Amino acid sequence: MTRVAHEPQRVAKWAKWYVAKHATTLGHELFVDSDRAYGSTAFIVGSARSGTTWIAEVLSAAAETRFIMEPFDERCSQFRGGLPDATYLAPGAQNERLGFFADKVFSGQLRSKWTDQYNHAHHPVRRVVKDVRTVALLGWLTERYPEMPVIYILRHPFATAWSMASLGWGAHGDLLRPHGRLDHLEPSERSLVLRQAFLAEVTRWCVEQSRGLRHLNPANKVVYYEEVVERPSEAFDAMAAYLSGQSQAWEGWQPDPATFTKPSATSVRRSAPNDAAAWVESWQGQLDASVIDEAIAIIRDFQLDDVYDLGATPRIAAHELWMRGAP
To answer: What is the CATH number of the domain that holds 141?
Structure first.
């Protein structure tokens, strides 16, 4: 009897939640994006857990700026199957399916619940496209859309790999996620799986960056995550200057400092350090020396140790990276 009596209340509560949820979702999708110019799109690209969402949200916080979230993800209903990890095409290569879809993305014609979930602009005059699956396609995309400003985010591979592994978002994720198993892993088992997951994510980062840096164009702006964290005003002002110089749609755009400290939609700040340096170095001390040695060997094998090594910060200036691939 009690259950029956409370049933209408439960239904009403669920209905209120459902309407609110879909009203919010619908609000993100109510927009008119009529500018088809590729130059009106700022493309933010980097490996997963590199700070791409945070930076894209700062850029898209401005009025009349549409935010397009990870269009090449399998959860985007208009790109069935998504893009396999580290998909690579050399500049000039032909791929009709990918080219057709990319044209829709960067011209603003794509619409989906997934990609527009964080959009707030109803009459956008510019766009931010953020993606973590197209680092290896950077050269191909830059050649296809030379007028499109590109901001390429780099973060230490150990930081991104540790984040992915500890959250259970990457390799062996089904084993590491808390609810991924009916039984639980013993501490010794979890340590072994976490080790392998970390090394797999370091390898993934190296594969992606070796291809992304291979065809890096001087017109692309490389941004180190560590430098944005330590000097956000300086870093975002530099991005504003770059965007204004590359695209008429971005002329006059200025970042809002109030957005710098706002956690991104994909942030997992379980116990954030008190200062920027501690945040940048937060991965240190989490792994055994033997695991670090293996990971450094992987980075050296991919010849990326001139970019990052055991230190928490990059070894080469961002504006010099494009010359690594020069003959």
So the answer is: 3.40.50
